[in-house]
Write a structure and sequence with these properties.
alpha/beta, 15 helices, globular, binds phosphoenolpyruvate, binds magnesium ion, transport, magnesium, kinase, sugar transport
Length: 313
């Protein structure tokens, strides 16, 4: 029952053959850290820093940021914490950073592009992160959003290293960086796939627009094929590939993502229990077979059905 389940010790994420798949939390605020730990998060796979910036008309100071990042890192001693630098634009517009007159903000100066155009903000954020890292015991990883090119990857990784960040990576949420993942992962220490935006850009369907919501389905084999590219590139380069979009919270899709090469999964903490239980039912070989069945489908609904069928046999 629920009470017994709540008091049972939480095991780390793993497949039936013992392959570890760390299960991490998506967080938007350090105040949510304790609850994530209670729900079994083994660390943080995506800390969205936008909340620090959204409530004010200017960027927070280095001191304000250091305080927030320190609080976050202190909640995860010895654990991996992946912080994403500011992802402003499109669905997360910031008055002091984004141009409200862009006709297509999802295709505009957003994410790492916007930070590069206002590099002081990025430098201050990296300063605050490095200071918080030095004062705490967590394993800090830092990543950039909306990276589209190898050149942007190098730019971000080099800058992060200048500030003493030891592990610097990129989000793969634009098809170009998924297709070039083998090159991106030469320079980046890791990749984290943002399936929300990767689906939006693969299907050319605004993730905020109800009239095209049926296209926003990460089960689509076109999206899965791009994820496979990243998984293969991670294996070839010996680099971790996480998933931090909503797709990781769908238990059967989580199995498919692992079969495609994901080495960790990050999600809303309330989704952790179901994903943990489902991963334990399949070996890595089975996950790969289930993923192959989904990849061979021609649309999202049949990919899901094929995965369900493969998971039963
Ligand atoms: C994503 O795009 O999948 C992602 C995790 O980032 P966000 O939802 O914050 O854009
Ligand atoms: Mg995104």
């Amino acid at each position: 029952d629920r009470a017994a389940a709540a008091s049972a010790p939480l095991t780390d994420g793993a497949l039936a053959d013992g392959t570890a798949i760390p299960l991490l939390a998506n967080l938007g605020n350090a105040d949510a850290a304790a609850e994530a730990v209670a729900l079994g998060a083994e660390g943080v796979g995506l800390f969205r820093t936008e909340f620090l910036f959204l409530s004010s008309s200017q960027a927070p100071t280095v001191e304000q940021q250091r305080e927030a990042y320190t609080k976050l890192l202190q909640a995860f001693p010895g654990k991996k914490v992946v912080v994403r630098v500011l992802d402003a634009g499109a669905d997360k517009p910031l008055a002091f950073l984004n141009d409200a007159h862009e006709e297509n903000p999802a295709l505009g100066l957003r994410g790492i592009r916007a930070l590069r155009a206002s590099e002081d903000i990025l430098r201050e954020q990296l300063t605050a992160l490095a200071e918080a890292d030095a004062a705490t015991q967590a394993d800090l990883w830092v990543m950039a959003p909306m990276v589209a090119t190898v050149e942007e990857t190098r730019y971000f990784v080099d800058l992060a290293r200048d500030y003493g960040i030891k592990t610097a990576g990129v989000m793969v949420e634009v098809p170009s960086s998924a297709l070039l993942a083998d090159r991106v992962l030469v320079d980046a220490d890791f990749a984290s796939i943002g399936t929300n935006d990767l689906t939006q850009y693969t299907m050319a369907a605004d993730r905020l627009l109800g009239s095209v919501a049926s296209f926003q389905d990460p089960w689509h084999p076109a999206v899965l094929r791009l994820i496979r590219e990243v998984g293969d590139a991670g294996r070839a380069n010996g680099k971790p590939v996480g998933i931090c979009g909503e797709a990781a919270a769908d238990p059967l899709l989580a199995v498919v993502l692992v079969g495609l090469g994901a080495t960790s999964l990050s999600m809303a903490p309330t989704a952790l229990a179901d994903v943990r239980a489902t991963l334990l039912q399949h070996t890595l070989d089975q996950a790969r077979t289930i993923a192959s069945a989904a990849l061979a489908a021609s649309d999202a609904a049949s990919a899901r059905a094929a995965a369900q069928e493969a998971a039963r046999s």
